[in-house]
Design a protein that fits this description.
Shape: globular
Largest sheet: 6 strands, mixed
Order of helices and strands: EEEHEEHEHHHHHEHEHEEHH
Distance between the termini: 23 Å
Bound molecules: adenosine-5'-triphosphate
Length: 247
């Protein structure tokens, strides 16, 4: 992308959990309109990176900038208003509330501001995930894992994010449902949504991403276009499995 515009930049990010040094100088960027995959094994620091971006952790060192503004240490609710929304690992939907109310809660900052586009956006989410429309009156907690993932993504989109952070959206889902989630990411990308997605399933993530970063023990060890990473020998050996020869 020659006319790409930087939306998010992390430079030299360091995060500690007590005495544990978890992120050791992480630098990466996301351009407007891109889907970027953050890959790596368990414990590499992917979730911690997302938590730092959305204000749940204060980095010990390094900078995060979003749309030209420094945001390290800014409170999460302010970041949501600025346009960063996360779908956390485990979805965390409101189980006792209806599907419809879960979606409305995603727009709470906009409802307070009497934003008239909320109805339109609800319709957009129901178009994106027709099953949520069918189940709009059901309790969120009664949905299947895949439907809850759709609800969590729909709720996040109701905030009209400029940047959507997805943490392992396919975790624990049956292959067909995971495929559906990945297809939704492609559709969102086509509509211009910028996404940073953490995924253990490197193959699935690289199929929908423009670029990717590979993390190991708190550091970015590889970066490149999705195609480059799919062809990279180390990535194939470590994350794609021996059988992945058909690229
Ligand atoms: P996973 O796929 O397992 O979520 P990850 O790449 O997202 O892996 P993180 O969850 O960011 O990795 O964890 C990075 C390191 O930080 C791991 O060693 C983990 O055990 C540790 N860690 C994560 N959360 C905490 C916490 N709240 N307190 C202490 N250590 C933590």
């Amino acid at each position: 992308m020659s006319d790409s515009k930087l939306l998010l930049t992390l430079s030299g990010l360091n995060v500690h959990y007590g005495r544990l040094h978890v992120l050791k100088g992480v630098s990466l960027h996301v351009n407007e309109g891109e889907v970027v995959a953050l890959l790596g094994a368990n414990g590499a620091g992917k979730t911690t990176t997302l938590r730092a971006i959305c204000g749940l952790l204060r980095p010990a060192a390094g900078a995060i900038s979003f749309a030209g503004q420094k945001i390290a240490g800014v409170a999460t609710d302010k970041l949501v208003r600025m346009g960063i929304t996360q779908v956390p690992e485990g979805r965390q939907i409101f189980g006792p509330l209806s599907v419809h109310d879960n979606l409305l809660l995603g727009a709470y900052t906009r409802l307070r501001a009497r934003d008239r586009g909320v109805e339109e956006d609800l319709q957009r989410i129901y178009d994106l995930f027709p099953i949520l429309n069918d189940f709009r009156a059901r309790r969120g907690g009664s949905l299947s894992g895949g439907q809850q993932q759709m609800l969590a993504m729909g709720r996040a989109l109701m905030a009209r994010p400029r940047l959507l952070l997805l943490d392992e959206p396919c975790l624990g889902l049956a292959p067909l449902v995971a495929k559906q989630i990945m297809e939704t990411i492609t559709r969102l990308r086509e509509e211009g949504t910028t996404i940073l997605v953490v995924e253990q399933n490197a193959r699935a993530a690289l199929k929908v991403a423009d670029r990717g970063y590979v993390m190991e023990t708190g550091k970015v060890v590889l970066e490149g276009s999705a195609d480059e990473l799919l062809r990279n020998r180390d990535v194939r050996r470590a994350y794609l499995g021996k059988d992945y020869e058909e690229v």
